[in-house]
């Protein structure tokens, strides 16, 4: 090497990044092929000297190859459209379309040859740098695979399927070796992405050659590649051996993505972009797990400390809630990336090989993980609020548990709002394809939906209880009992095979004991609310009935036949007038004067006789009228 700088050139990584950024994800070749701009003249690249070559010179060659290849693909697609239009048209229009199609196809062939020219020139420079020790085996393997892919596609377009199959199989073999020797999950996903891209082309060539098991790409590669790779690639075996030595089996743990499983089978992550965001999810998940382990140790009472006394448990729960922000942010980013990849795969019309999981499945899996984390976060928030309620119950009841405590009026509405969020997440989770395809998982999600609805009705009932709306309160208690009965019927048949309880992690554990506990609380509160309602207004639906006095039934009729002692009734009702205290006896002199004054008017009153009150004249009425009149207080 003697003073010459080392060059690091990742051809596949650069090509993948540029394609994703500039429209090739959606097969927009016109946008991807880089032009020189308006009013600019084409300037030929100066000759490159190996003594002063840099990675920028190699990037220019790669971009020239990419531009020519994209232009070729654009012309080729246009020729196919014109060929189809020629078949549908007739006469002169068909001939004109056919001529344009042939012209575009020739133009595409010329541009493809130009792309191969630039790629071959790039490969020759890289081989020279590798011989000088300035380029790694991994970088040379990437450039070699890139050149073989362009050659194979060009031969396939010219219907030379035999040679195209050989070129593509050797390229696939190199990509598999790169994936096996990758030190990070991103590098592995990069190699796998390019291998998946040429997989359908290998299958098409084998099908055109009438090969047996043309669908088995791995078998075709293992059969064809070892026989031809040394002929196509200079010292290919030595290059692969050097590639294995450079990797050395040493991988960076921070860059390695843990395997993700669904129903015992791995979830394929074949996109470098997705690997980057899932690595962030993995790091955030470690923080959540660490916080959970801290909560377990914090919840245990320390020496000399009574359990549940201090606010340590509340503080740890709030810290656990904050730790979910990072993982939810990372999962939201992963969901956005996977959704875009799934849309691009759908628009391009590419499908995964038989028996493999495509990007649609990966997107559904990430959405499921996102929703499960949201449910965990909301349940942790709710347990924090309920912890405050239990502390208030114990403090106001002197260590026991009282169901009638003074709490913040915003407590129960906040719990109901959290349960609404849990319901929304579970309902969205139930619509996922991966959940719908698993009967046990679908039943488990529905059971938790019913249980959450029961808890929501129960806490919503406590929102109405302080307002003395006992009819609404008891109605919600009855709805909660119905949802709880529905949940019990679904959970009893699958308590041993519940996939959510056995999942990693179990984001919403649910057992029969939880149902029994909620059912007991519903029964106790229902009886308490009924007693409160009866004491409030006798169980009447009219809330104003306790404020106004109502006459008993048949009160008017009873008054017509019974003389009521109103003084006695007022005394029994506690409304009798207060008794006047006795005054000291007056003197004899003071008694004589009032007696003289009061005797005269008393005599006058005895002499005056009041005329009797005349009876109301009763007019003759029919028999039915006289009978019904008594019911309404008339004689």
Automatic annotation (TrEMBL):
One of its GO terms (biological process) is SRP-dependent cotranslational protein targeting to membrane. GO terms for cellular component: nucleolus; signal recognition particle, endoplasmic reticulum targeting. InterPro entries: SRP68, SRP68-RBD, SRP68_N_sf. Residues 309-318 have a biased composition (Basic residues). Residues 584-593 have a biased composition (Low complexity). It is found in: Cytoplasm; Nucleus, Nucleolus. Residues 626-635 have a biased composition (Gly residues). GO terms for molecular function: 7S RNA binding; endoplasmic reticulum signal peptide binding; signal recognition particle binding. Residues 288-318, 575-635 are annotated as: Disordered. Keywords: Cytoplasm, Nucleus, Ribonucleoprotein, RNA-binding, Signal recognition particle. Residues 288-308, 594-612 have a biased composition (Basic and acidic residues). Belongs to the SRP68 family. PANTHER family: SIGNAL RECOGNITION PARTICLE 68 KDA PROTEIN, SIGNAL RECOGNITION PARTICLE SUBUNIT SRP68. This is Signal recognition particle subunit SRP68. It comes from Pycnoporus cinnabarinus (Cinnabar-red polypore).
